[in-house]
Write a structure and sequence with these properties.
two-stranded parallel sheet
Length: 197
C-alpha cells in the first residue's frame, strides 16, 4: 500500500490527480531496452524488417507518451559487426571516469549550495539556471534528423538537467550542451533518434 507521507522527501516521487496525491518510494535509475518493431529489425543494416507499418505503429504505441516523457535519454543502438564484438577496443579506464564524475558532482554541489542540496533540481530552478546561462525560451535546437525538437514543459526541464550534467562532466558551459540533451529526447517513432557509439 503506498504511503501518503514520507520522512525523507528526497527519496519519494508523487502522483497527483483530481482525487488527491500519493507519494511512492522512487529513488532509482531506470535502464530499459526495447526492439524497434515486433520482428526487431526495423532500421537494421543487415536484415530487412518484415513488419507491416500498422503493426509497427501499434507496437510503439504500447509505450505511452507520458511514460516516454519521463525517460531522459533515448538512444538507438545499432547492430555491432562480428569484428566489433570480438575486438577489445581500448576504453577509458574506470578510475578516470570516476574522477570526472566526482569532479562534476563537486561542481554541482558548489553551484547549488545554500538550500538543502538535491542534484535532482526542481524544474523552476533548472529553467532559471538555463536563462542565466543564455538559453532562451524560444530556443528549439534541431535534432539529429534535422527537425525541431519540441518537448513538453516537463521534458524541457529534464533536458536542461541533462544538459547541465553533460556540461559539468565536460567542464563546459550549459548552452552548448542543450542541443545534445534535446537530441536524446527524440520520438522513438522517428529516424532522428541519437545513435549510440
Amino acid at each position: 500500500m503506498p504511503s501518503r507521507r514520507s520522512a525523507s522527501p528526497s527519496r519519494t516521487d508523487g502522483v497527483t490527480r483530481v482525487w488527491g496525491a500519493v507519494e511512492f518510494p522512487a529513488r532509482f535509475t531506470l535502464i530499459a531496452g526495447a526492439n524497434p518493431c515486433p520482428c526487431g529489425y526495423d532500421g537494421d543494416s543487415v536484415r530487412q524488417c518484415e513488419c507491416l507499418p500498422h503493426r509497427v505503429r501499434l507496437y510503439r504505441q504500447k509505450l505511452s507518451g507520458p511514460l516516454l516523457d519521463r525517460i531522459d535519454l533515448r538512444l538507438a543502438v545499432p547492430r555491432l559487426s562480428r569484428r566489433e564484438l570480438l575486438e577489445e577496443a581500448p576504453g577509458e579506464p574506470s578510475a578516470a571516469v570516476r574522477d570526472r564524475v566526482e569532479e562534476a558532482r563537486e561542481r554541482q554541489g558548489r553551484r547549488y549550495a545554500g538550500p538543502p542540496l538535491s542534484l535532482q533540481r526542481p524544474g523552476a530552478r533548472a529553467a532559471r539556471a538555463a536563462h542565466g546561462e543564455g538559453v532562451g525560451p524560444g530556443m528549439r535546437p534541431a535534432g539529429p534528423g534535422g527537425g525541431d525538437v519540441r518537448p513538453t514543459g516537463g521534458g524541457f526541464d529534464r533536458a536542461i538537467k541533462v544538459a547541465r550534467t553533460i556540461a559539468d562532466l565536460a567542464g563546459a558551459e550549459l548552452v552548448g550542451a542543450v542541443s545534445e540533451a534535446l537530441s536524446y529526447r527524440m520520438d522513438l517513432a522517428g529516424e532522428g533518434l541519437a545513435r549510440a557509439g
